Amino acid sequence: MISTSSIKKHRLKIVTVILYLFTLVVNSEIFFTAIKTTAGYLKEMFQILPAVFIISGLITVWVPKEVIIKNFGKESGLKGKLISVFIGSISAGPIYAAFPVAFSLLGKGASISNIVIIISSWAVVKVPMMIVESKFIGFQFMIIRGILTVPAIIFIGYMVEKLIDKQEIIKDNGKEAKESNLVIKVENRLPQYNCGGCGYDSCRKFAEAIVKGETKLEKCSISSEELRKKITNILNNNRQIELTN
Amino acid sequence: MTTIILILIAVISLLWSFIKDKAKTKKTLKISTKLFKNTFSEVFFIMALVALFLAWIPQSVIKTLLGSSNEIFSILLGAAIGTITIIPAFVAFPLAGSLLKSGSNLVAIAAFLTTLTMVGFATMPIEIKYFGKKFTLIRNGISIIAAILIAFGMGVIL
Questions:
Q1: What is the pTM of this model?
Q2: Same domain, A126 and A229
Q3: Which residues span the domain enclosing B150?
């Protein structure tokens, strides 16, 4: 899993570099236009992505699950859908910036339809974009497209939720993601002193080894009995989930 | 403008978090940097490919394609071009505006603009990374259909 995904990652890089070199040889003018556009995209990424990732991190750490479930969960109804449209439309940045935020909301109990609504309205319902649209194409065109788009987005959310199970997304995300989730859970319970007493460089590495079954919890000499019990429970629970799936 | 507000919100909430609880803030930053590491290079190379694509295919090509006299064909083509390309709004709207003035099909332009933003063929690898293949294909598939319906709706109203 890890090796194939890293090959895939490099494949994208290799393909990009080869295509750019090819363009440079064939037509340097196109090459420099592309570089210029890429620089523009890069600037946008650096302006938007750090902020988006910090907000995603804050949601994950601070916002209680109950709050997300109440406002974005399955039972949140029309109000939840409208909040989702609102959140998507006031957010800055292209569609790829919506994924991490939507992902952390999903992990906290938001429903699939609301996630889809956030992603779609993040991409389409944008005030600055509407201003540009009405300037170049016309106010009537912009307003009618907007009025038709909002219900369409809610409909898309409804359909996607009908067609896919939340459990499937988590499963589809691969064993790798699940394992790293488990590693994080275990790591969070460890003392975090990175003392190295267990023979690993850090608590993180120790947690990875625990999940893989390469070492024993008792090696962590500074952890309490109670703590080890808690971690054992986490590991057992995970095994049960895997079995029932 | 919205970018500045977004950055301000992030900075202020992070400061608030830091004052309230240092350990939680450390955890937040750990998660954020991990997200950044996981996503950044992929997004960067995809955007570089999009830039290269745009440099190779001049606007005039899109113009001729969307200006086709066959209505249904130009609508489907509009949706298809919007799906496979990512064109920044400040390029797409002036382009669409000049197309309409030169007599292009309004429904085709609407389909083009809606799929352009809502459906991301180029960003699909990133979406798959977060939500898996099935979700990504279903969401994008239904969005294409919805975009075409929106376009037809606009044709009826306007």
A1: 0.71
A2: no
A3: 57-157
